[in-house]
Amino acid sequence: MRFKRPKNTLEGEGKKSRLFPKDKSQTKDKKEKASREKVNKEAKINRESKDHKESKEEIYCKKCKKYISRIDLEKSLHICPFCNHHFMISPKERIKILCDENSFVEHNQDLKSVNILDFPDYDAKLEKAIKTSGENESVLCGLCSIGGCETAIFIMNGEFMMGSMGQITGEKISRLFEYATDKSLPVLGFSLSGGARMQEGIISLMQMAKVSSTVKRHSDQGNLYICVLTNPTSGGVTASFAMQADIILAEPDALVCFAGPRVIEQTIRKKVPEELQRATSVMENGFIDDIVSRKAQKTYLGLLLKMHERKEVKNASI
Q1: 111 pLDDT higher than 70
Q2: What stretch of H or E contains 151?
Q3: Which has the closest alpha carbon to 63: 231, 259, 276?
Q4: pLDDT tens digit sequence for 218-253
């Protein structure tokens, strides 16, 4: 027979609370301790942010938590010498690294985004983006030669509203593909984007279909398209032209996804592995062909362009 403990014993919750009431001084001490811990935590965060403040001479690497001389970083093509982290670079810096000297000619540089939907504060954000990046739009397009091979090239700009895809972004890339199709040129693309630009609504999403159609026409004519995915490549750019190339490459540790890890974690309420959407994992799952360091890209891409160079074949007389 099971013995049922009575509720009115000393061990009972109600009895215990009456016999041994809570000490108010202890409760007060706990609150003060929690308050001190909160203040100390905030002070630590503020101290760390001050400690990690970058200067004109040094830049802080968030991956390995070390400082690097800006001069040394520039010499190493903006790659951390300690952990191989590839820092974000501007399109013009990438042009200097990749293209043959004085070979780059920009196309459609005067095209600018406008506030079509009269979205609040969008005009101010565009002005700030132009001032910060030094460019009129989130993509730089033109012609260049790499290793002596002529190619059309587009490079997305992370400093311009995180490379977001607006109407003019799609228009410039579409025009570049149309030009390359007419001239039978390969296209080399460098994607870097947070996705479609929310301030342009459905118009920004329409760029996915528009650019994809020009990529298809370019491909149907037997032309080569290479895309290098840089950190980060996400959203509508990943869901369209970034993943439609004949050869898809990526920089080391680049984030390649549609929805980012934070969005996934908020949806499934679980922590996702850090390497889940990184270049190595994406390649292991067959979505990209190779991972190429920035230092090796000029040689690597030059060889690919040379291998796929189109030459006119003359009919031999018998």
Answers
A1: yes
A2: strand 149-156
A3: 231
A4: 999 999 999 999 999 999 999 999 999 999 999 999
* Domain extent listing, the chain: 23-51, 89-307
The token duo for 156 is 């997305």
C-alpha distance from residue 307 to each of 106, 147, 310, 311 (Å)? 25, 12, 9, 11
Long-range pairs for 240-247: beta carbons < 8 A, 24 or more residues apart: 240/207, 240/208, 240/209, 240/211, 240/212, 241/173, 241/189, 241/191, 241/208, 241/211, 241/212, 241/215, 242/189, 242/191, 242/193, 243/287, 244/212, 244/215, 244/216, 245/189, 246/219, 247/289, 247/304
Q: CA 72 to CA 261: how far, in whole Å?
A: 32
Q: Please give the pLDDT value at position 49.
A: 43
Write out pLDDT tens, residues 47-62: 444 455 667 788 999 8
Global confidence as pTM = 0.79
| DSSP β-ladder status, 66-69 and 58-61 | antiparallel
Task: Judge residue 113's burial from the number of C-beta atoms within 10 Å of its C-beta, 0-12 exposed, 13-18 middle, 19 or more buried.
Answer: buried
Q: Kindly state the DSSP code that residue 232 receives in the 8-state scheme.
A: E
d(CA 256, CA 97): 23
| CA 236 to centroid of chain Cα atoms | 12
Q: If you ran DSSP here, which 8-state letter would residue 309 be given?
A: -
As given in the structure block, the two tokens for residue 82 are 């300690």
Half-sphere exposure of 271 (CA within 13 A, CB side): 3
What is the rounded CA–CA span in Å between residue 5 and residue 288?
66
Contacts within 8 Å (CB) and 24+ apart, 59-64: 59/87, 61/85, 61/87
Domain 89-307 has CATH 3.40.50.300: no
Q: In what order do the strands lie in the sheet with 247-250?
A: 105-106, 139-146, 149-156, 187-193, 225-233, 247-250, 290-291
Nearest to 98 by CA among 43, 140, 70: 140
